[in-house]
């Protein structure tokens, strides 16, 4: 073993300054590329995770509205402030409101909790950038027994100081 070490030390000539600078330059370029790829991958992962969370929240809200509409079985649907009213008339008039309040969807007394904020129409927000539930009747009345419900959800999540928004529009007849 000693002979090997002695032979190795004799043949060691060392590195020149040029070789050392070239090696350090190549290592720093490789480290920069690796760091950039990892950072880009993490940012993409976070963006996709936020988009998926927004889609999940939008699906939850839309399915809640549709489920409530079909399970409640209203006779008439009427326009209401920030939403609609489902009216059932079985001798006594029963009403269920579906509307947006405080950046949340409300169905009757229940608040549909999500991780996302629901952008609600108010004076400070222009109409195309806000969530809404609209009723389109075959006539110009504010109450109808058949027509079209148009739902526009604008969901927003803040991740690492960046707001990410998802807009979902759906129309269905009743």
UniProtKB/TrEMBL annotation:
Keywords noted in UniProt: Competence, Membrane, Transmembrane, Transmembrane helix
Subcellular location, record wording: Cell surface
Organism: Paenibacillus catalpae
GO cellular component: cell surface
Transmembrane segments: 20-42
Source domain of life: Bacteria
GO biological process, one term: establishment of competence for transformation
InterPro entries: N_methyl_site
PROSITE patterns the record matches: PROKAR_NTER_METHYL (PS00409)
Pfam families: N_methyl
Name the record gives this protein: Prepilin-type N-terminal cleavage/methylation domain-containing protein
Coiled coil start-end: none
